Records
---
Amino acid sequence: MDSTNIFNERKALFEQSFIALNRRYNSIAALRITLFIMAIVLIVVFANIRDGLGIGVTVIVFPIIFGLIVKKHNKIAEHRDLARFSALINQQETDRLANRMTELDQGNQFKNKKHPYLHDLDIFGHNSIYQLISRAVTPSGQSLVAEWLSKPAHKQEIVLRQEAVKEMIPMLDWRQAFQASGMQHGQEENKFHSLLQWINEPNRVLDMVLYKALAYILPVITITLIILNIYVGLSIYFTIGLLAINGIILKKFAEYVENITDKTFKSLKTLLAYGRMIKIIETADFKSERLKFLQSVFVHEDHNASDSILKLQKILDYLQARSNMFYLFFNFGLLFDLHLVFKAEKWKEQQKADVNQWFDHIGELEAINSLAGFAYANPEYVMPDISETDYVFETTEMGHPLIPKTERISNTISMQGKGTVNIITGSNMSGKSTFLRTVGINIAIALAGGPVCAKNFTVSRLQVFTSMRTEDNLEEHVSSFYAELRRIRMLLDMLEKDDVPVLYMLDEILKGTNSKDRHAGAAALIRQISDTNSMGFVSTHDLELGQLTDELPNLKNYSFNSIVEGDEIIFNYTLEEGICHSFNASKLMEKIGIKM
């Protein structure tokens, strides 16, 4: 069964599950309303007949029953949302395979036109590589996917990522459950900055021994006075007096409690999602070195990270209920605010040092899951070999991952050695630019640790550089030609650093000037960069540049050609050795109405 059918079947199953769970959710919602009305009616009835025992039983029993039903309701809501998000995940997978990616996150926040290749290779934005690869739903995961696609990793790191990705590829149920759990943070913005700010603030009440003692002693006295009032007839004023003392204590800490709720209330759903993601991580049976390492930070002998995160979420969730009628009632009698603040600060004291590491490791698992999901959806892709030898790029049947399979044309090429230059000539619209993007995109994915669109693929660690979409900038008074010159200056600066070997791709080199200057400048640049720590591709319409093979032994000519049959121009988009031997500009001009 192909990937599309698998995803469609899973989507249908999750949609059926969602419908069934939603029915149960609505039924329990109706039951909650009914119970609440019943409790109010009973309290009114018992009050009218002056039945204190009946009121007491109602006030105690109904909140317990109501709480149990709410817990069940929330559990069903969790499973319902998981089913809904799981259906959405499988819909997104089929959308990627069909190149319908409009609704997917474009990663626009990571765009950078000054980066060596991001803009030219469509790494971010509409119909981008990021949309094709990223399954990350947390900020840390999205940032790491972007980072991996933006710079080459070292070989040892790539190998570790590849091992982790290979292990995770067949774990379809686990991967989608992990992703769906993270999607449960809802539509709210992630406010983890303010949450982390609160976590890193010093504690204020944890060491207040007197108030900690009062938080336990006063509620016991309050309950005792209420019982004595009901059964012995003790004056109600004793109870009222003690409740007033409780109120004064609550007032003392009210501003601090409000500060906690203000900084955390928009993070509750996200915190819950993190807790569920961590629980899924803890239950996995990983084998690869990287996955076992990432899992290890969540599992401890005395506690698990998921339990800790969910414990904090519950504490903060209870604090958010301070405006609830039941909470207000019990808060005055039992000093809930103090108990919850003590618990929250104790949590901070115990877990503060671990929190950032937990979130970072979730992000890395999301990045690995993204590459694994990309590989699973495209089983014909291959995991590249990373060469120990510098200046190596060899591939057979390499295609562009953003072009649909039915339209994709694959090409084969091999280049090795410092200073290697491939001149690519070709007629208009023959595929030169697309081929350069195909090379750059697949290398970027390979050096991120992912699978590539090819039958075979070997590459050494390289820094990709492109100069393809040079644009004018009216604000900076920069013409498109000068923009290209600045881009070339950026390449020359990079080559002077003598850092990672560079693989450059220069498309339609120096296209913004006259043919004489263009040829002289292009030839000079090729001579200059052929003697640097680099290798690369230069596409051009200038056939004379191909003659540089006479003086530069590392230069080789390739071309894309077309055939003119009558009024039609036929492109095969296949890379051939040698200088271009077909031309179509005149025919293209004729087709749009120019009388040649």
---
Amino acid sequence: MSAVDIETGNVTNAPFEVDIPPDPETGKGFLKPLPETTLLERIAGGAAGASVITALAAMILEGGSVIVVGGVLSAVVGPYAYYQQTQLTDIKALQETQQKIQIEVDRLAAENNRLARNIDEMSDTVQGLQDVENALEIITKTQGQNVAVFAEQVKENREILQRMQHNLKANVLQNLLSLVFGSDTNQDNIVNDNEADELVRRIGNMSGVEVHEAKLREAIVGKEVSAVMDVIRNLLASDNLAEEDRIFVIHQ
């Protein structure tokens, strides 16, 4: 899983670490096994048995009322003392069990607190990821809108350039006619070298128009002014002509 920088929105390849509580220790046993009888219980049991046997022997051998009462009491007190010892052993075992359980409860509570903190941290991270996702979605939508607007602007600019090119050709055509007839200074309807120089100079001063002087001279020098129609046809068809056949180059 990748980590995310919430402040910058950058996604890194570093692993996302979560503080997981350690597993409970195994192999040690939750509680120590209790023996069926403890040393004290065996001692108390032996004493109880001895007191009962002694009391019975005294009552049988002596037979007096006092002996009988004492024997009965001895026979009762011995087993009762043994019973009390077993109860004390059980209480001690219960106390140890309660302590172990309390330790385990405290450990589980600590683990629960750590898990709660981890959940809070992961919630913050998830919220940060959601914010990044929302930001990326907004950026994507904005970029899509920008691309559409840019495409529309490119289309409009292309149409404007086409109109400008057509207008430029019309201006060149108009100026070409006026320049050609204006350059025929001797009114002989023949374009000579001097008149061609003037024509080249004037067309060269027009913005956005490049003229191949040698081709223009070849097309008009020594020919009638009406030969300019061939030059005009070359201008109108310049987009469809090879570079070496063009007399004029219209720059967009």
---
Amino acid sequence: MKASKHFQKRLQYYWIEKIYTELAVFFFPVLDKTPITPNMITVLNMINGLCTFYAVWTKQYALAAVLIQVYLFLDIVDGNLARYKNMTSELGKNLDTVCDIVFYNLFFILLGVSIQIHWIWIILYEIIFNLYGWTATNIIVPRIRKLKEFKRRGLKKYLFDHGILLGMETGMQDVLTTILLFTPYKHWIFYSIIILYCLDLLYRFYELRYNEALELNSY
């Protein structure tokens, strides 16, 4: 099977995604010579997810923190490996999506119960996390694609021009979770993630409306 040199799905990445993607690249020539498939990596990550659930439920927070980063790394590897080995498929895409949905929803339910945070914060996380994903996928991104040009400003533009996306996403969420799991301030995992998703969603709508107004006024 011929490997694809152009496996990256886009030119810009979120910073932690960029680091792990560049790290993963070193393994691809070796993996390309093995029968290991991207779906195998996804299944391996599902098993890792179960181990992460067990670690957080049994209050082994340091282990859970490490396994979260393993999850993030493998989540980046499977999609990029699929493009590298020309093995992209609808099954693989759906498997990866289901894996992420189950992991990020169930992990934070278990974490909330484990650290004994008030149940309202668990529910708020579940609502905000899923609402953010649905809104970005079904409203914001489709409207951006209708624009002839999308202008970013300030720090977002500077970083974008240097290949880095600035915003809240699962990678940033994983980094915050990993760091705070090593501290006595585990409740702040929920507080910070909820606040950042809300702020980012509001800014993305502002940014979208700004660009739509620019295009409308250009006619």
